[in-house]
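Exercise: predict the structure of this protein bound to zinc ion.
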Amino acid sequence: MLHSSLPIALYILGVTALLGACLGSFLHCAAWRHTHGEQVWRGRSHCPACGHTLGAAELVPVLSWLALGGKCRWCKAPISAKYPAAEGVCALVAVSVVVRWDVSWQAAEYLVLGCILFFLSLVDLETMELPGAPMAAAAVSWLLFLPAHPQPWERLAGGLAGGLALGGGMLAVALMADRVLGRESMGGGDIKLLALLGLYFGPAQGLLLLILSCVVGLALAFAMGAKDRPFPFGPAIALAAWPVALFGEQAVGWYLNLF
Ligand SMILES: [Zn+2]
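Solution:
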């Protein structure tokens, strides 16, 4: 894509942004349904206040929300800005993977990962829990995309080492912290999420992810004023995972070149 002419590149990015926005809309809705005990795959989108089923014109990402002034067309109940925000975030994620990997299998792989991380973050923010099924899906997706990589065996070995290092390392730290603090310091879901991302990033970039997650986590905890109450760590890990996915390879290469 980056080698094609500017109009074509812009067209591809536009379509990608739209696709990402639609995915964001779906994921936000799916996370809402998941946390409210509704079935994720069943039923059409509806206004949470009056139950009115949304028509096609009300389902255009971001634009519908702007056109309706952030209100339901029927009952005028305000519609949270979270809807267009979710669409915007996923549009950015989709555009970033295409800029990074062009239109390729790798872009598809990381778009899937980005979607799952986004869903997990929304659920974790709402319920303080990271559901296992989407993480299992991300692990299966990692395995399925392996043959599309130029060096699949290296990626397999690096991924397993990264998963073990991050998952095992965090488990050890968490168990020690539990002992010192006398309470659960870190959720099992957070450890599983780190192990999962270790698969994608391998040990070196995994370490970078770990450091960034802690920085982002502290910043988020500070911003949200969560001093003594429990704080969802999943969104911090997901947020940190994105720069690692996009720039981790260069960052680690640069670091290793220092010696
Ligand atoms: Zn309504």
